[in-house]
Design goal:
177 residues, 3 domains, 8 helices, copper ion binding, cadmium ion binding
Length: 177
Amino acid sequence: MLCQICGKNPATVHFTEIHDNKMSEIHVCERCAEEKGLQTVPAKQTFDIAELIAGMVDGMTATEEERVGHVQCPRCGLLYSAFKETGRLGCAECYTAFQFQLRPLLRRIHGDTRHKGKVPSRDGEGASRSRHVQRLYDELHRAVEREEFERAAEIRDEIKRVETGTTVGRTTAEPSP
């Protein structure tokens, strides 16, 4: 994308303005941004997600720190206290090793511990059905743990209906005795 002012240089500075519920964008090169007096963020003020996460983890009390500071990832050996200082995990296994400490942090950052992004329109129904079935399996597991077997049977039947694509009102014909 070229600068919208000079039309020569690549646009590297992007501004978005919302005024009276109307959004306008301007894309300019650094030289034109400086000439027009548009403020840019200095390089030393860049956003660092690791620093943000480390800062959010600092909200733990001393007793919580004593309890979780010695938790260690079995794969890479990273201590939770080291994650707390840097805001960076060592490997994919760290998510499992630190899951109890990360859940509240993720909930605070994202509002939930499960990603709920947009679904591509070409497979939206299939993906939606898969998520629904996964939620039902999770609910089934919890019902069995609580020994709520009647509820678990209802959930099992609902899973079958969703997986086969039948509606709730329709029942399958059973063979006569």
